[in-house]
Amino acid sequence: MIPGSNNDHPSFRKSFLFAIQGFRTAVRTERNIKVMIGGGIGAIVAGFVVGLDPLSWAIVLMCCGVVISAELLNTAVETVVDLVSPEFHPLAGRAKDIAAAAVWVLSVLVALVGIIVFANAIFF
Fold it and tell me: Where does the chain bind ATP (predicted)?
């Protein structure tokens, strides 16, 4: 709902379709989301190869979802910053850098979790 608008909220179905549209737009236009999805697919294939147990699958799938969600949020932050500050501004750059850093930190931690999960499946 737009602030100050008298229109009702979109239906659940319409909200769901907006979310799918946003995901498609991100996949079509953003390189990093493609990289994250590729990494997730690689982790899933590797999970089948090593024969992960159900708990390990839950961890891997949760990590994939969290990283992709973080990248989508980073993309949203960068898009809004570009909208409100089309010319360079140090604070706009700082906001974009911090959002990207959040994804980077999460990705490093997820990589460590992946090492633990796959090492456990392979060696123990």
Answer: 30, 78, 87-89, 96-97
